Amino acid sequence: MAEVAFIGLGVMGFNMAGHLACEGHSVRVYNRTPGRISLWCDEFGGDAFATPREAAEGAEFVMVCVGNDADLRAVLLGEDGAFAGMAPGSILVDHTTASADVAREMATLAAERELGFLDAPVSGGQAGAEAGMLSVMVGGERVFYDRAVPVIDSYAKMIRHMGPAGSGQLTKMVNQICVGGLLQGLAEALHFAQCAGLNAQGAMEVISKGAAQSWQLEHRHQTMLEGNFDFGFAVDWMRKDLSIVLDEAARNGAQLPVTALVDQFYAEVQAMGGGRWDTSSLIARLKKPA
Ligand SMILES: NC(=O)c1ccc[n+]([C@@H]2O[C@H](COP(=O)([O-])OP(=O)(O)OC[C@H]3O[C@@H](n4cnc5c(N)ncnc54)[C@H](OP(=O)(O)O)[C@@H]3O)[C@@H](O)[C@H]2O)c1
Known about the structure:
2 domains, Rossmann fold, 13 helices, N-(1-d-carboxylethyl)-l-norvaline Dehydrogenase, domain 2
């Protein structure tokens, strides 16, 4: 069992850190808003710290799950940042969905301090984090990956090394390209079924056993038909992810016309007040005929 620090007890991190504690690791936690720390310690009984640096001191592994590039820099760098507290040979595992650029930058800064760095974004959402069944895509040096796998395994059903620093984030971008297109397709399919006067629920049940089957279809068609979006993965987060994807595509030359369009549709959902709605809310733009 390892000495592990966890920084960022949000929707995802709270549950991931909980699985580490339940597996028997010794867990040291930090969260910017202190209320989340007491909530976590009441439930799991780990040790609370006032800065990322203090949480990281003495930890063999430091796991991070914050919002975006700027948040990652805020918790890793500077006098109170995690890097300042980490001992040579320890490993930073970043579960934030961030850019590949920031992953490469942090990996370089970590190497200068003789630390390991892995970019390890996750897929599987809140439900996956609660169940400890996340899919984890990892970039960074293999030697650090091999050491971190048994710890990451506490909350994963699938872990894969994808290549050098930044490769985990690039793989997460592939995931988000798939998800955006799938959800827009599903929204249009449900909308069409309703306009055609079909039993949309029945249509989904029968096609879910055929070639159109997907996780989104299985888990989201019902709430999409009900117009219930008050849960899940927020549109604001998805727009952050798609902006990272489109920036990367502008650099590597990939053509993503559908992804760019879906990003604009999400901007419309935000304008409707749906920034915190689940990403399946794309259907809310499509009005049923009267
Ligand atoms: N939710 C999902 O379904 C899901 C699925 C896959 C991947 N992700 C990714 O996982 C990451 C976390 O998502 P989440 O849903 O857990 O988000 P969340 O609930 O909003 O939590 C964000 C966490 O980051 C902390 N944080 C943000 N900015 C910070 C800063 N500048 N300094 C220190 N701490 C900061 C927050 O602290 P406070 O409590 O103080 O705000 C909170 O602990 C994101 O990159 C997201 O894209 C999310």
